[in-house]
Amino acid sequence: MIKRVLVISLSIFIIALIIFWLWSGGLSAAARTAKDFVNPVNIILGNGSSTGMAITLPWQSDSLTRGPDISDYVGEADRINQDTQEEERAAIEAQYGPDIAKAQTFGDPSPYVGKVMITDSNATESDTAGEYVGLAAPPNNSVPISLAGWFLQSAVSGLRVNIPLGAPHFMLGVVNNVQSISLEPGASATVLTGTSPVGTSFQENICTGYLNELQSFTPELSAECPSPSEAMPVTADNIRIYGDNCIDYIRTLQSCHFPPTVPATLSPACRSFIANNFSYNGCTNIHRNDPTFRLPSWRVYLGFRTELWRNTHDVIRLLDDQGQIVDVFTY
To answer: pLDDT digit string (tens) for 279-296?
Structure first.
């Protein structure tokens, strides 16, 4: 009796399973399952599975998941940055190019076009002590060109600064007489953004190399000064007054250099001569009337503590006292 009940129950269970299978999709569901089924060997080797999970065997490495391949993008940021700068430069030149053409060929250009030019610049320098614009008057000019009332202007930012006055005969430790800067034919001017290390703009001369001993200049001043032996020629009077040792010692001194110590074996008159003559003011007092004393170059300081020109690209214009364009420099 019990055996019969079990057989009947099992039969009913099997029939119920068949009915449920037919109700849930039957043959079509089985086909879909077979289609999605992945080779079991591939599952074991980690090449794929029906669930997207790989089985890792003990001898297989448990490596991290790899990200996308970005090898093609190496250096792309640099290329984009370079392209952006080139586009910026092209846009600036396209916008302000007509100003250059106007200043050189048509419209109402300054009468000084070609007589003063922007020759170079260190405008991209971030330190105001080294940021400068170079001006030059061609040697074929017939007369000096006064820069009184002239300006430098950034055509991009609109900032405009005037060319200041300068001392043609600069002396240390005194209030110098300043006047409008004029460029002789062939002369040049370095127009620096920062403040002057000696308190004013000045024209260079054959003694300005001594100033390098006191302050730092950018660009550095010329280190070619008159030879110290020129100040102490061998004469009977010099031998009598200063002594043989004085003449020999002075011949060992470097140009543009004041000796920090003077030998005590030299005569008092010799030591006094060295102190009074081998310095910037001493050199100037000796040579200021020489025809070659003044050099055809100026150091002009605008006196700003912040940058004036852009560090990437800019259009710097030189304007005369009427606001007309003399020259344009782009970078």
So the answer is: 999 999 999 999 999 999
Separation between Cα atoms, residue 160 and residue 95, nearest integer Å? 18
Six-digit token string for 18: 């068949």
Residues 202 and 295: their CA atoms lie apart, in Å, by 11
SS (H, E, C) the chain: CHHHHHHHHHHHHHHHHHHHHHHCCCHHHHHHHHHHCCCHHHHHHCCCCCCCCCCCCCCCCCCCCCCCCCHHHCCHHHHHHHHHHHHHHHHHHHHHHHHHHHHHCCCCCCCCCCCCEEEEECCCCCCCCCCEEEEECCCCCCCCEECCCCEEEECCCCCEEECCCEECCCCCCCCCCCECCEECCCCEEEEECCCCCCCCCEEEECCHHHHHHCCCCCCCCCCCCCCHHHHCCCCHHHHHHHCHHHHHHHCCCCCCCCCCCCCCCCCHHHHHHHHHHCCHHHHHHHHCCCCCCEEEEEEEECCCCCCCCCCCCCEEEEECCCCCEEEEEEC
| Cα–Cα distances in angstroms (integers) from residue 147 to residues 56, 112, 114, 135, 140, in the given order | 83, 10, 14, 11, 18
Quote the longest CA-to-CA distance of the chain. 157
Relative orientation angle of helices 280-287 and 268-277, to the nearest 10 degrees: 90
More confident residue, 97 or 266: 266
For residues 190 and 204, the answer to whether their CB atoms sit within 8 Å is no
Question: Rounded to an integer, what distance in angstroms lies between the CA atom of residue 165 and that of residue 146?
Answer: 11
pTM over 0.85: no
Give the separation between CA 114 and CA 262, rounded to whole angstroms.
Answer: 52
CA-wise closest residue to 280 among 161, 185, 167, 194: 167
Residue in this structure with the two tokens 């240390």, named with its chain if needed: 172
Q: In this structure, are residues 110 and 320 in contact, taking their beta carbons and an 8 Å threshold?
A: yes
Quick: pLDDT tens for 1-14.
666 656 676 677 67
The mean per-residue pLDDT over the stretch 233-249 comes to 96
What is d(CA 233, CA 74) in angstroms, rounded to the nearest whole number? 70
